[in-house]
Every structure is written in C-alpha cells, then in structure tokens.
Write a structure and sequence with these properties.
This protein is α+β, with helices and mostly antiparallel strands and 313 residues long. Helix content is 34%, strand content 21%. It has a four-stranded antiparallel β-sheet, sandwiched between helices. The chain has a three-stranded antiparallel β-sheet with strand order 6-5-7, with helices on one face. Strands 1-2 form a two-stranded parallel ribbon.
Length: 313
Amino acid sequence: MRTAHRMGIQTVAVYSEADRHAPHVRFADEAVCIGPAPSAQSYLLADKILETAKKTGAEGIHPGYGFLSENADFARKVQAAGIVFIGPNPNSIEMMGSKLAAKEAAKKFNVPMVPGIEEAITDIEMAKAIGKKVGYPVLIKASAGGGGKGMRVVEREADLQTQMERAVSEAVSAFGDGAVFIEKFVTAPRHIEIQVLGDAHGKVLYLFERECSIQRRHQKVVEEAPSAIVSPAMRQAMGEAAVRVAKACDYVGAGTVEFLVDADLNFYFLEMNTRLQVEHPVTEFITGLDLVEMADPNSPGRAVEPGAVGFAN
C-alpha cells in the first residue's frame, strides 16, 4: 500500500471482523469487511473478494502472502472478471503448487535435484526400494504440502510403512491430496532461497539469495542476506538455476526459488513460491529495489512501454 500510494494508486483493504483494527485496514484508502474471523468465512471466499473489488471499482488484486495467494483457481477467476491479478499466471501457480510437477519441470531444465523419486507413490514395496537405493534417512513429503504438514523423516526401513501412512493421512487432511514422494533426507542442511523477477517478454532475473536456515517446526524464523556460506561462483550457479526453474513455468512477476544445501555445498531444488514472500524486504534492503512496484510491470495505474520493463541489473 505504501508503494501504491507513492505511485498514485488508491488502495482497498478487505478484512475479517477480527482484523477491523489491523494496520492494513487503517492504512488503506478504503476498507471493506468481508466476513467473520474464521478464514473460511472471510479471506478464503474468492467470490466475496471479487464482489468487493467490483463494487469498489478496483482494477487489480494483490493476493498477499497467504490464503488465496497461490490458488490458481482464484487467479483465473480474477482474470475472468476482467481484473488484473498482480502475480504470476494461473498455469505457473498450478505447476509450482504441486511439488511433483515442479520437480518434473525443473528437472527438464537441468536443475539439481535431491536423490529420490519424482512421482507420487502409495506402494510400500516401491517406497522400500527407493529407500535402499538412496540410503537412509529418507524424507516422505506431501506433493501438495507446505509448512511441514505431510512430512516425515524415516531413519530405518522398519519405520517406513507407519510413517508413510501417517504422512498420507496428514496430507489428505491438510490439503485434500494424499500424493507423497520420497527423497534422500539431507542431514544438517542449509536452506537458501533465491529471489526472481520475470517480465511478460520471457526475461527472468535473480536478485541474489536469502538464507533462511534458522527454522522452528519447518517455519522460517530468521532471514539473512547475503548468506555466509555462498561464494560468488555458487551464488551465480544457484541464481542461474533459479532462473531456469522460473522459465520452466513461464513465470511472470516476483517469486522465490528455494534450495537445500548439503555439508559439501551441493545445492538441490526444493520448491518455488509463486508469490511475493513476506520476507521480500530483506532483498529490498540489499538491492535498493522496490519489489512490489516491480512485481507486475502491467499493474493498473502504471504506464509501461513495450520492452521498457523496469528491471535493474
């Protein structure tokens, strides 16, 4: 909203009854209550948000960091309503929203992968075969997962069946999708993410890294840039790999490609977040760029000539 105000764009905030005094509500030019506190009755109501956008005359919708921010169906609804979705295209969101589809796409572009299998499995015998091939410990991970849900570390084959059943059950409960895959568990890993920006002409740039290895329950606690372990050569290699991931799904706008780094400084593709992350100010501090302004060069209220997209080297 601060960026929008500086660009001369008026803003409308939507909020639940629990957030009526939240900072974003006070900061916006206009604010509309869209329902009670439970997100299923407010922030997850795509049709209610679209209705509010139409009533207030909003030309674009910024999806924020959670709730519907990586929901391809919502993005399609926004576009169908003739409103600008300030984010990537729905197909990119859909492809990178599935960890299996994301891995398959990235693999075709020569992006390093953690040893394992890039397809959903339910057969315990196949899981055992994969465990023997890559070596224990292994990680069972929900394809549609996030935030550590549907994730289990298995130290030995004897525990594989029980942990796999639990991971599938948790994935179904949390995401409505029980697909899981298995990969080598990287012990003592570092977690490095690369900020990328793509324009509508197929150009993608990387804006260096953020280290987010300090976590609690698979949730990031501290973000730092630059990373203490990344050399200039490694930074370039990871950045170029991140660009290839973005190009694999025709990415437009701001996004983040995440990697695991092992003790020998080998890096492996983890996933892509198809949105502007809450951690983006860390990159703004080290680059001096406003990622919100740059996230969608065709956002309403901004005149951009073809080929004159505002990306800095």
